[in-house]
Amino acid sequence: MPQEKKQRIPVWFYPDTTEMIDKLFPEDNCKSRSEFLEKAARFYCGYISADKAVQFLPAALVSSVSAAVQSSENRMARLMFKLAVEMSMMMNVVAAGADLDEVNLQRLRGKCVDDVKRSIGTVNFDDILRYQRGE
Q1: Is the distance from CB of 46 to CB of 52 less than 8 angstroms?
Q2: Where are the domains of the chain?
Q3: How far apart are CA 85 and CA 64, in angstroms?
Q4: How many Å apart are CA 117 and CA 123, to the nearest integer?
Q5: 70-79 contacts at long range (C-beta below 8 A, 24 or more positions apart)
């Protein structure tokens, strides 16, 4: 880019836009309006082309967000594994003492799916115990 020769183009702005540029370009460490407008045009072009948007985020921010997402994903995977182990243990204990036929097992599965959907996953043991007791 530095070896390219700049091209002069006419640009028309409203006076309040020019005032805003004049006020802000020194705050962005630009030496001129031209440098400020070049940066602004490149940023906006990057903004509207979503596949290149990462180029306009600071590398530290991208790295930090990626690490946070990865950490969260790893934590969720570990928690889901632990939950699956506990569920398997519980199902084995219950199955050892339960006398359910295939029809009632399928009805129970349907009821459990409905319960979880209705409660958005917040099924609690007290409610299930009351249901099983017929309360």
Answers
A1: yes
A2: 15-56, 58-99, 100-135
A3: 32
A4: 9
A5: none
Tens of pLDDT, residue by residue over 24-52, are: 999 999 999 999 999 999 888 877 776 65
Q: Tell me which amino acid residue 46 is.
A: G
Is residue 132 within 8 A of residue 124, CB to CB? The reply is no
Q: pLDDT tens across 51-97, in order?
A: 655 666 677 777 788 888 999 999 999 998 988 888 888 887 788 78
pTM over 0.85: no
Which string of DSSP letters, residue by residue, matches 56-80? GS-HHHHHHHHHHHHHHHHHHHHHH
Give the rounded distance of the alpha carbon of 133 from its chain centre. Answer: 42
Largest Cα–Cα distance of the chain, in whole Å? 86
Structure tokens of 126? 């007290």
